[in-house]
Amino acid sequence: MSGAQAFGDMRKLSVEERGALAGRWWQWALSAPDDRCPVKDTTGEHAAWGQPDDVWFLAGTYGGRVVRRCAVPAGRPLFFPVLNMQHPRSYARTPQSLAVAEATASLNGLPLLLREFTAPFMTGGTQRYAWGVWGGIEPLIPGAYVLEIKGRATSGFWVDTTYHLESKPF
């Protein structure tokens, strides 16, 4: 796997810290304009939209198969959902979730550690809840990588995402 390993820090993060990261991911995803939304993007051309300086978010999908190609900064950890959802607190006072039938991620064929957790977050003054099965990757050394993400809920919802990543200095 040369230069990549499971996001070791994610294992050490508290539930609150993991939740804050998931909340930040959702704030990032929900703030993108429709014409540059990384979640709707089927090619990877909008992957760099609005990225924070301390972590690089990879987008999920609204279901189905997608293949994306994008550059990611060498030296910055990656964070991504396998399956996830969010809702305003007005919808339900407790976090909602999906019943997971499958959730896997691998980098260059090697399995990655995934974590399931929920967290509150805010957007535009609205309290929301996030739930998801999340993965992370420690900063990559420059090079080419393939990230495979697969998830399936018992309801029939599924995702199958392939990222062809080029890690390079930004």
Low-confidence stretches: 1-8
CATH topology descriptor: Immunoglobulin-like
Query: What form results from the Cα inertia axes?
Result: globular
Task: Figure out the total of helices.
Answer: 2
Q: Specify the structural class.
A: mainly beta
What is the CATH architecture assignment? Sandwich
Terminal-residue CA separation:
22 Å
- How would a textbook summarize the main sheet? 5 strands, mixed
Spatial extent as radius of gyration: 15 Å
Query: Averaged pLDDT, please?
Result: 91
How many domain units? 1
Order of helices and strands: HHEEEEEEEEE
Instruction: Provide the CATH top-level class.
Output: Mainly Beta
Q: What percent of the residues sit in helical stretches (DSSP H or I)?
A: 10-25%
Strand content: over 45%
Q: What strand line-up does the widest sheet have?
A: 2-9-8-4-5
The tally of beta strands, per DSSP, is 9
